[in-house]
Amino acid sequence: MKAEPAAQARLLDLQELDSQLHRLDHRLRSLPEIAEAAELKERADALDAELITAQTRVSDVARHQRKAESDVDQVRTRAERDAKRLESGQITNAKDLQNLQSEIESLGRRQAELEEVVLEVMEQAEALNAEVGRLSEEREAAVAKFTEVTARRDTAAAEIQWDRTRLTQDRQRVAEDIPADLLGLYDKLRAQYDGVAAAPLRYGRCNGCKLALSTVELNEIRATPADEVVRCEDCRRILVRTEESGLGVPGAE
């Protein structure tokens, strides 16, 4: 493939722009705010799940408390009714009186037991409500931090995108100076070799693979016309001859 030396030299400008674009893409993917936001989102979601569980338990305990209080009211009402019957003097039979007194005592014990249950349930409810409060505060803090981090992430991403747009426009202008066949080869090689398709030959060394060329290889390049596109024998990237190539032959650069 042939191309004017000036067009070959433009490949280095294009490669530099592509390398900068590659670095910007890497920066965009590697923004620390991305990982931080993901962790905060995961934390907020976990707190959401814990909060729902705690709120469900609060609801269950509240229902249990209402049931226990209702049981206490029923027993108390029954005990008060029996006490009135006992005090009324309407029951004169000794055995009936004894049975009624026994029932009142039994209801008193049952009421005490149920009131103990109510106290236990109230303590559970207090602890669970405190847990709900704690989880709510932690979730709010996580959501606030997530909002802050995502704002910083979006700002940083927008700045990178602005730089990328500018570089992309520069790339388009540089690409217009390069023949289509040479540009096609460059793009093909860039896809094959980690984004680096063209490299300068400096002081007898390929700046693509960083390997020094042998004397035979340098002599072959030295004898190659300046408009002939040459490639590194080791990495197969396009070698662009420069004033610092080290070929030592006027007009070969």
Question: What features would you describe in this structure?
Answer:
It is built from five helices and four strands. The chain is mainly α and 253 residues long. A four-stranded mixed sheet has the order 2-1-4-3. The longest helix has 82 residues, at 94-175. The two termini are 16 Å apart. 16% of the residues are buried. Residues 249-253 have low confidence and may be disordered.
Brief summary of the model shown:
This protein has 253 residues and is mostly helical. Helix content is 74%, strand content 5%.
Radius of gyration: 42 Å
Q: Specify the structural class.
A: mainly alpha
Spatial sequence of strands, sheet with the most strands = 2-1-4-3
Helical content stands at over 70%
What is the mean pLDDT?
Answer: 90
Overall form:
rod-shaped
Question: Helices, strands, pairings?
Answer:
Blueprint: H1 5-29, H2 32-88, H3 94-175, H4 180-192, E1 198-202, E2 205-206, H5 215-223, E3 230-231, E4 238-241
Parallel strand pairs: 1-4
Antiparallel strand pairs: 1-2, 3-4
Helix pairs in contact: 1-3, 2-3
Task: Provide keyphrases for this structure.
mainly alpha; 5% strand; 5 helices; four-stranded mixed beta sheet
